[in-house]
Amino acid sequence: MQRGPVLTGPPNKLGKTPNKLGSPSQIPGMMEVMFRNKKVSVIGLGKTGVSAANLLSELGARVFVSDISPENEIAGILKTLKNDISYETGKHTERVLDAELIIRSPGAPSDLPILTNAKEKQIPVWSELELATRLINPKLLIAITGTNGKTTTTLLTGEILKNAGLKTIVAGNIGRPLSDFVHEIDSSTVVVLEVSSYQLENVIDFKPDICCILNIKPDHLEHHKTMENYIEAKTHIFKNQESRDYCILNYNDDISRNRIEKNGGTIVFFSKDSVLKNGIYCINGTFFGNLKSQDWTFTPKLIIPGEHNVENALASSAIAALVGVPKNVIESTLNNFRGVEHRLEFVRELNRVKYINDSKSTNVDSTVVALKSFNSPIVLIMGGRDKGFPYKPLLGLVKDKVRLLLLIGESAEKIHKELNNSTEIIHCGDLKTAVQKSYEKSGPGDIVLFSPGGSSFDQFKNFEDRGNRFKEYINCL
Asked: Residue 366 CA to chain centroid, in angstroms?
């Protein structure tokens, strides 16, 4: 059975042949045969590593897991592994190489010496994304990436498709790994994936029917080492696409637009302000769709603020239109979508001061987007673990919009140095102190914006933990 997007008529008429491993729902026992008694090593015990290891165990593989963390630090995680999975902690030893396949978790650095050794021994290294997508054959596979906005766009796309009555699973870099859903996916399922650059590094045959790159901005340079490496990883999302597949790109993003010559799929652009002959665009708040034989217009009433969310809505609309979702379903969903937790999330209004949680801001460009989303005077709480890119691009926005900058975390000194003389700056050390200071220093009409512009790992488990702490502190005021 073929699968793929259509512009008109019933779904599943155009598209690609199933992956070479076949569909588990069509070939009973296929997965078990593929992996039974095969030696597979999994590097890294994050969510995807655990999910991949447990799935492989269920399929009869002989699984070995290796994690660099000391055993006492990940004791709780180890308890979630299947009983027949063996493991090592604290280091990656040669035991990893006693394998026919290695699965690298996204959090594991791609330049680990053990992975170099694996390459020399010609042991295949896959991402969890590669593993899981080889084991499914859904009606449609949709993949969304981008430096910013991919979580919002993925959730919004999933909501539109569900509201259209399609059996939809949303997975990947958002919520739960795809491996958790392998046994639930059949030929009637539409799979919507958020995929990160880390996940795309070790894909081989991964080929979505529809993919989308929202934007590419400087980020994760501590992992990818160079901007070119980061761009290359992002564009792996379309490297296997053919003309019957679709790739949706942001016309206003120079980097992704300039990579279209490497794309074998059919390009569809979206734009927040430019008229397009073939694509979806916005002029003065009205959306115009022009995709093959379909032309439509509507003016959504978006609840989620900011120009970036107009782009996210356009991208989701383009995906939905390619799938064949009616315009009224798209418009209704856009008008009722309330956004993503930790991304420009309204927390509370106290003494006519609004508190906004943007903990998902883990790079400078995210903070730029956040600052552009508000016109009121801003008390900005910023700082975290530095990711290797400059903060000077914020200088003009901080001068124009921020009346007080409260700094926390490891990057505080660097931010102060690069944004010095732009506004009043106070070092607070930790988030709780910064929240209290924002309460004391803000006044009616102000917005207290927590948009860190760096990763959370200096003081928190992850950005969710950081955002939840912010909300807890705000609600205690």
From this structure: 13
The predicted structure's pLDDT at residue 24? 39
Tokens of residue 197, six digits: 């650059």
- CB contact at 8 A, 133 and 22: no
Sheet containing 86-89: order of strands:
86-89, 62-67, 39-43, 101-104, 125-127
Q: What is the mean pLDDT of residues 299-311?
A: 88
How far CA 307 is from CA of 144, 204, 325, 367, 372, in Å, comes to 19, 35, 24, 13, 8
Q: Are residues 155 and 283 located together in one domain of the fold?
A: yes
What confidence score (pLDDT) does residue 25 get? 39
| Same domain flag for 406 and 467 | yes
The C-alpha atoms of residue 43 and residue 101 are separated, in whole angstroms, by 11
> Is the pTM above the cut of 0.85?
no
Residue 421 buriedness (CB in 10 A; 0-12 / 13-18 / 19+): exposed
For a pLDDT cut of 70, what percent of the chain falls above it? 91
Taking alpha carbons only, the member of 40, 30, 82, 86 closest to residue 61 is 40
Is the torsion defined by CA of 193, 469, 428, 423 positive or negative?
A: positive
Residue 261's pLDDT is what?
67
Average pLDDT, the chain: 88
Higher pLDDT, 331 or 11: 331
pLDDT at 131 over 60: yes
Structure tokens at 455: 């990763």
One domain, residues 315 and 234? yes
Residue 3 lies in a domain: no
C-alpha 57 chain-centroid distance: 27
138, 226: one domain = yes
Output the domain CATH number for residue 231: 3.40.1190.10
Do 200 and 314 fall within a single domain? Answer: yes
Question: Are 256 and 176 part of one and the same domain?
Answer: yes
pLDDT single digits (tens) 22-42: 333 333 356 667 899 999 999
Asked whether residue 27 is domain-assigned, the answer is no
- Over residues 273-298, the pLDDT tens digits come to 999 988 999 999 999 998 866 788 99
- Considering the domain architecture, whether residues 303 and 172 belong to the same structural domain is answered as yes
Rounded Cα distance, 37 and 443, in Å:
65
Question: Please, what sign has the CA dihedral across residues 353, 357, 362, 365?
Answer: negative
* CATH (domain of 387): 3.90.190.20
Q: Per 3-state DSSP, what percentage of the chain is helix, strand, and coil (rounded to 5)?
A: 35, 25, 40
Residue 241 belongs to some domain of the structure: yes
Q: What is the DSSP string of 231-294?
A: HHHHHGGGTT--TTSEEEEETT-HHHHTTGGG--SEEEEEESSS--SSEEEEETTEEEEEETTE
Separation between Cα atoms, residue 382 and residue 376, nearest integer Å: 18
